[in-house]
Amino acid sequence: MTDTRRRVKVYTLNEDRQWDDRGTGHVSSGYVERLKGTSLLVRAESDGSLLLESKINPNTAYQKQQDTLIVWSEAENYDLALSFQEKAGCDEIWEKICQVQGKDPSVDITQDVVDESEEERFDDMSSPGLELPPCELNRLEDLAELVASSLPSPLRREKLALAVENEGYIRKLLELFRVCEDLENREGLHHLYEIMKGIFLLNRTALFEVMFSDECIMDVIGCLEFDPALPQPRRHREFLTKTARFKEVIPISDPELRQKIHQTYRVQYIQDMVLPTPSVFEENMLSTLHSFIFFNKVEIVGMLQDDEKFLTDLFAQLTDEATDDDKRHELVNFLKEFCAFSQTLQPQNRDAFFKTLSNMGILPALEVILGMDDVQVRGAATDIFSYLVEYNPSMVREFVMQESQQNDDDILLINLIIEHMICDTDPELGGAVQLMGLLRTLVDPENMLATANKTEKTEFLSFFYKHCMHVLSAPLLANTTEEKPSKDDFQTSQLLALILELLTFCVEHHTYHIKNYIINKDILRRVLVLTASRHAFLALCALRFMRRIIGLKDEFYNRYIMRNFLFEPVIKAFLNNGSRYNLMNSAIIEMFEYVRVEDVKSLTAHIIENYWKALEDVDYVQTFKGLKLRYEQQRERQDNPKLDSMRSILRNHRFRRDARTLEDEEEMWFNADEDDLEDGEAVVPPSDKMKSEEDLMEPISKFMERKKLKDSEEKEVLGKSSLSGRQNPSFKLSFSGSTKTSLSSPPSSASLNPGSPGSPGSPGSPGSGARSSPSTTTVTTKGGLVGLVDYPDDDDDEEEEEEEDGESKEDPLPPSKKSKLSS
After folding, report:
1. Digit-coded pLDDT (tens) for 235-275
2. DSSP string, 278-334
3. DSSP-based three-state secondary structure for 55
4. pLDDT one-digit tens code per residue, 561-583
5. Which residues, including other chains, have CB under 8 Å from residue 343's CB and lie 6 or more apart?
6. Which one-letter DSSP state was computed for residue 240?
7. How far is CA 628 from CA 610, 624, 635, 654, in A?
8. CATH value of 4-101 in 2.30.29.30, 3.40.50.720, 1.10.1740.10, 3.40.190.10
9. Using one digit for the tens of pLDDT, what is the confidence trace for 614-661?
10. Bridge partner list, 29
11. Which end of the chain has fewer CB atoms surrounding its CB within 10 Å, N or C?
12. What interhelical angle do 469-478 and 512-521 show, nearest 10?
């Protein structure tokens, strides 16, 4: 068999019943040894790679559609299509397929789609053709029953389709329809509706080509107006002929293109409006109709795209000042429809389409259109702009950066978009929401390109903050000059909420650009004016903006907030909200809770030093008391640097322990033999053994005196919240007034947890190795000292008189063990 190469596109049907373009190449047929049979081969015209290798299976059903399409199923739910550039190429490949399957090339389908039962197959084979009743008025009921009974069986459906096609039955039915309509024969019209609906479900391209021809399509639509389920017929023809008008804004010289546009519009109307919504079982029966519309749209876009004179005239008239408003409105609507059609194209074809529009100057044209007063024209231009931004935001960014070198800021395309967002007259701001989404896409660093020579993110953001940000923030700045918003109506509040949403996005995704802008323009102070708005959603937007800034934990922002006392409006809003438990209350508390949990030291000190009086009575949450405690701990560290250094050292030694660790160490302590502890064992780090007792005890004694004054308040706080997992209520340690310290544990007063910091013999405690140095206290427990800082609610009971020095030197451990066992 000789090879015949023809130019084709390969399509596959995806899960959404849409055709995906797999590439363009040349098709041939030939014997493939690996597949053991004659196969269809498609090699890409770009690089010669194999796009398709499909064996012509004798049992596979191939369909020929629209003279240039061959469609078949390789496996369940995997449909393929070859779209030929020339009819002759399609005919040759079709002949090869029919030759392999032993079929007559005049047929449009080579096999039955679904296997029938043997009995049904026998019945159908016994009658090789399906005989249709005469196309007469009194036989319409019989014909309707025949069509309805044939639809469930693929073989009978095929025979019915062949009979309808070969006898020219559709034209006869349409003549009968005109007679019934003239006679107002409702019964006959209802039968014709059922018959015509059934013919659609035959899913056959040859029948569609007859039905959708110029002389037949309006009568077909007429048949579908008389649904028996409706009391009155629909008026689809009246709409298509009187209401829907085809406006040729630019003369289309190609009659084939014009006819294709008319046909596609009407068929799309039939699919969307005329035919009833198909059931689950009927949906696949209309796949050929979907394919018919899809390939028509692809053809239309391709033919228009190739007509350079047409596109040149279109853009010339769009930008010509002499073009009247009505004409320009039509031109913009045509361009919008053109872009909408392009969404059916596959990615590589869509690339070529938008590249063509870009070369023709679509962005400068849109800039002119957006500057016009006509709201409808601007709305259509916005839709076109959204197609461009969604397709390729980098192309739009490059254009606006280039035009900024020649034009003033006021007429830049991106500033026109911002102005239309600000000036949207819709009470619900539908257009403004759409435009804000486009701006967000344009300033999103995630879709910006970075190459070796330039970084789009740096260049565009520098441009945006220099030329556009002042336009975006103008309504915000104009409305926040006083302590309350100047205008607080619903539409203004909605607009400001949109602007704040975009600014919040910038805080999250931009770095120094937005930081410099906020600090230099004092934006946050202006935004917080909106917390006084009567619209809760706007006040919450302002809080969200500040919360995003605090969440960055950036000291530049923190110093800016403290320098300008920017928590003041937040606390005012909190107090004005009163005892109401609402979103405002929760949002403000969460902001302060974040500062506490993340231990943002500068903000903690600022809040307590400036606003504690206003917040100290809030006791239904522990957030503010917890902040106060954080603040006091910071002060203690500043006042007692030695204490702070001991904390850091012990933190690096086993200070943090979970419950299981404490239990294990306690068990080890009880099981350990006294003799296991050698006299010279060094547990305290060498640097700490040299510290004098007085140096250690003086700051601790002062600390304890201060803590006793606040004892009751802190017990309440610490009883409700655990600080960093260090709380241990059973850990009791008290000091005598002397310069020496010792551990004693009478059962009634201080029950000392074995294994806790400061316990004799615990791995982290230096108590057991202190006997060799007279100048060192009996227990120099850094664990105990840190415990004093971390557990200010320890018992204030005085310890009993310490044991005599000699006795404690000889054997300090057994009494402690005994006391622990007895406790």
Report:
1. 999 998 888 877 788 888 888 888 888 899 999 898 888 88
2. P-TTTGGGGHHHHHHHHHHHHHHHHHHHH-HHHHHHHHHHHH-TTS-HHHHHHHHHH
3. strand
4. 999 999 999 999 999 998 889 99
5. 350, 387
6. I
7. 12, 6, 11, 28
8. 2.30.29.30
9. 998 998 999 999 999 999 999 888 887 765 555 555 555 444 445 444
10. 40
11. N
12. 40
Cα 736 from chain centre = 64
Token pair belonging to 332: 């913009």
Is 25:39 a contact under the CB 8 Å cutoff?
Answer: no
Cβ-proximal residues to 699 (8 Å cutoff; 6+ apart), any chain: 639, 640, 642, 643
**Per-residue model confidence (pLDDT) at position 684:** 41
Question: Residue type for 201, please?
Answer: L
Q: Which helix (H) or strand (E) holds 79?
A: strand 78-84
Separation CA 269–CA 248 (nearest Å) = 19
CB atoms within 10 A of CB 374: 15
Measure the CA–CA gap between 221 and 458, rounded to whole angstroms. Answer: 58
Q: How far is 128 from 124, CA to CA, in rounded Å?
A: 7
How far apart CA 668 and CA 762 sit, in angstroms, is 9
> Which token pair is 195?
């018959």
- Is residue 365's pLDDT more than 60? yes
Matching residue, tokens 């099981």: 671
Cite the DSSP H helix spans in 12-139: 87-101, 118-126
Going 111 to 115 to 121 to 124, the CA torsion angle's sign is negative
- In angstroms, rounded to a whole number, what is the distance separating the alpha carbons of residues 682 and 684? 6
78: its two tokens: 């995997």
The residue among 206, 310, 311, 224 whose CA lies nearest residue 266 is 224
pLDDT at 129: 62
* Domain definitions of the chain by residue range: 4-101, 139-295, 565-641
Gap between the Cα atoms of 532 and 429, Å rounded: 23
Bridge partners of residue 28, in order along the sequence: 41
Sheet containing 50-55: give its strands across.
Answer: 50-55, 37-44, 19-32, 6-13, 78-84, 69-75, 62-65
Contacts of 789 (CB under 8 A, 6+ apart): 633, 636, 643, 647, 703
Question: How distant, in Å, are the alpha carbons of 183, 397, 714 from that of 787?
Answer: 104, 60, 15
Geometric angle at alpha carbon 635, from 629 and 641, rounded to 5°: 130
Give me the numbers of helices (H) and strands (E) for the chain, helices first please: 38, 7
- CA 807 – CA 815 distance, rounded (Å): 10
Surface-to-core class of residue 686, CB atoms within 10 Å of its CB (0-12 exposed, 13-18 middle, 19+ buried): exposed
